[in-house]
Amino acid sequence: MSEVRSEPRSDGEQLPLYPVDRSHLEVLTDDLAIMQHANGSEPDPAHGYCTDDVARALRLDLLHRRTLGWDAVAESATRNMRFLDEAFDRSSGRFRNFRAVGGRWADEIGSEDCHGRALLILGEMVDQAPDDALVTKATFLFQRGLPAALRLTALRAQSSAFLGCDSAMRASPNGTTSSALRNLGGKLQIAFLEAPMVEDWPWPEQILTYENALLARAAIAAGRYLDSPDLVAAGLRGLDWLLEVQTNTAGQLSPIGSTWWPRDGVRAQFDQQPIEPTSLMLAAEAAYKVTGNVRYRDAMERAYGWFLGANDLGVAVADPDHGACFDGLTPDGVNDNQGAESTLMWLTALEHIRDVRGTAGSSAAVTPAGSILSAVGS
């Protein structure tokens, strides 16, 4: 295992920002898409591509547009959108996920999470992309994928689909998207407000698995859309708990490991994966925008710090000099491989920290939720 030691940082201290570096993305990407896995820093063609990572790469194109301009990412965004278009199975209304290097699809219907993630980025493309042709394509795929989204049963998939609808609705309000928002928001409401919870486990699931904070982020957004202070409060309470149980004695982020944490079992400390701090960062960002409470901005900084060595081992997981990230934090150091998901999570975290630092202290930093804000407090 590689180890790049980093000096421990005190809680709240801002670690350096880095310029946008897409060099490792380019290494992992061929004419079709970004490859899932890597052997060290080299792409591993044996495992091909997945829609999950292509959707994340397309979201990163939107983020990098803020700093680099659209021309710098337009070719990548067009390639990623083409992949999503080809991933969509018109007969089932679902997205396929796994694809071999030669272009053959390995599955007829992808996972529910894959469908939700695809709708999430398509909704953001509808809302944010400056290219009319890509917006038209994103709108078409989004609307064709909505009926299947209403049949999703996995809470993470429902959460992603809701957030995609939320974005699309801002750009192009229509009755179909509004109906889907209420349907998916109602499912989140049931999960967070009607599921049995106890004080020491204020969470709608009996096991903490992966990308847990996505659920809290979606609950906060759904509470705002449904004008439900109780749902916003439940999302904030769940996020607060996630932050509390994933903070070590030094005040650093310590994400749940990849073998997870059953409510009545033992919490996994390792292997910690980059998707966890980034999902926590995005949920904390949503909480900060709703409440204006700076402790959520501080939580974003702790999540960012995890990548740069403010973690259980004091080891840098990100490789900022190459725009890359190692695949996880193991008991012995970092996993030497620098695959797509890990790299995309680091680059996404970097852009959200760049944005929150750029808007901190300005009126753009917080968008209070009116009556909801007064109901849940700050």
What does this structure look like?
The longest helix is centred in the C-terminal third of the chain and has 20 residues, at 340-359. It is built from 13 helices and twelve strands. The strands form six sheets. It has a two-stranded antiparallel sheet with strand order 1-2. Strands 3-6 form a two-stranded antiparallel ribbon. It has a two-stranded antiparallel sheet with strand order 4-5. The protein is globular and about 50 Å long. Helices cover 53% and strands 6% of the residues. By secondary structure, it is mainly alpha-helical. The chain has helices spanning 23-28, 51-68, 70-87, 112-128, 132-149, 155-171, 175-193, 213-225, 229-245, 275-291, 294-307, 340-359, 371-376, and strands at 38-39, 42-43, 49-50, 88-89, 94-95, 98-99, 207-208, 261-262, 318-319, 324-325, 329-330, 333-334. The protein starts with 22 loop residues before the first helix and ends with a helix.
